[in-house]
Design goal:
mainly alpha; two-stranded antiparallel sheet
Length: 137
C-alpha cells in the first residue's frame, strides 16, 4: 500500500514536470513582436535570392564572389518589385564610412562600400534610424 502511494506521487510529479516543460516550450516559441513589413519583405527576398544562387558552384574564390553578386542582385530586384529602393541618405553616409573603413583595413573604398551594402541590405533597422531600403512613393 505504501509503495503504491509513493509510486502515485512519483507519477504525479513526473506528469507535472512534463507539463511545465511543455508549457515553457510553447511560450518560448511564440515571437514577442511581429516583424515589420520591411523585415518580412527582406526575409522573403533573401530566401528567393538564396534559391537563385543555390546551384552555383563556389569551389574557387571568384565563384564565391559571383554567387554573392547574384544573391545581391536578385535581392535588389526582388525588393524593387515589392516597392522598395535604395535610400539615397544611406548611400551618402555609407560612402563616408567606407572611405574611413578602407583606410583602416587597407582595402579599396569600393570593397568597403560593397561589404557595408551587402550587410545593410539584410537589416531592417539601420544605425541611427537610417535604413538601406525606403518605400517608393
Amino acid at each position: 500500500m505504501k509503495a503504491l502511494h509513493v509510486g502515485g506521487i512519483i507519477i504525479a510529479v513526473i506528469g507535472v514536470s512534463v507539463g511545465v516543460l511543455y508549457w515553457q516550450n510553447l511560450a518560448e516559441d511564440l515571437p514577442l513582436t511581429q516583424p515589420s513589413e520591411l523585415m518580412q519583405t527582406i526575409n522573403q527576398c533573401d530566401l528567393i535570392a538564396s534559391k537563385a544562387a543555390a546551384e552555383l558552384p563556389e569551389a574557387l574564390p571568384f565563384q564565391k564572389l559571383e554567387k554573392m553578386a547574384r544573391q545581391s542582385r536578385v535581392l535588389d530586384r526582388c525588393m524593387q518589385d515589392r516597392g522598395y529602393q535604395q535610400n539615397p541618405a544611406w548611400m551618402t553616409q555609407a560612402n563616408e564610412q567606407a572611405s574611413k573603413a578602407a583606410q583602416a583595413n587597407n582595402i579599396s573604398q569600393d570593397e568597403a562600400y560593397e561589404t557595408m551594402r551587402r550587410q545593410a541590405m539584410l537589416q531592417g533597422d539601420g544605425a541611427g534610424g537610417l535604413t538601406y531600403w525606403v518605400r517608393t512613393q
